[in-house]
Amino acid sequence: MTCFLCKGEMKQGTTTYMEDLGSCIVIIKNVPCNKCSQCGEVSYSGVTVKRIEEIVSQLKNSLTEIAVVNYSNAA
Ligand SMILES: [Zn+2]
Q: How many whole angstroms from 43 Cα to the centroid of ligand 1?
């Protein structure tokens, strides 16, 4: 697999996903991803994207300003 930006080599790893929902910021740690060894571009698999969406939509309802969860421990 190569990076769509710089054609560098994509390597499996984990990253911290962050999304600003306006009223709340969601931070998900240890999200599995492919990371470019050259430019650092990150891409997620379809399954991971779905999972991120699930986690974010659940945390959206929480009243905390900043929600930090671990990918593997999230509800
Ligand atoms: Zn790249």
A: 10
Q: For residues 66 and 25, is the Cβ–Cβ distance under 8 A?
A: yes
- pTM of the predicted model as reported, rounded to 2 decimal places: 0.86
What is the whole-number distance in angstroms between the Cα of residue 11 and the centre of ligand 1? 10
| Distance in Å, CA 27 to ligand 1 centroid | 23
> Per CATH, which fold does 10-70 belong to?
Ubiquitin-like (UB roll) (3.10.20)
Residue 42 Cα to ligand 1 middle (Å):
8
Domain ranges for the chain: 10-70
Ranges of residues in the chain whose predicted pLDDT is under 50: none
Tell me how far CA of residue 46 lies from CA of 32, 41, 65, 66, in angstroms.
11, 16, 28, 25
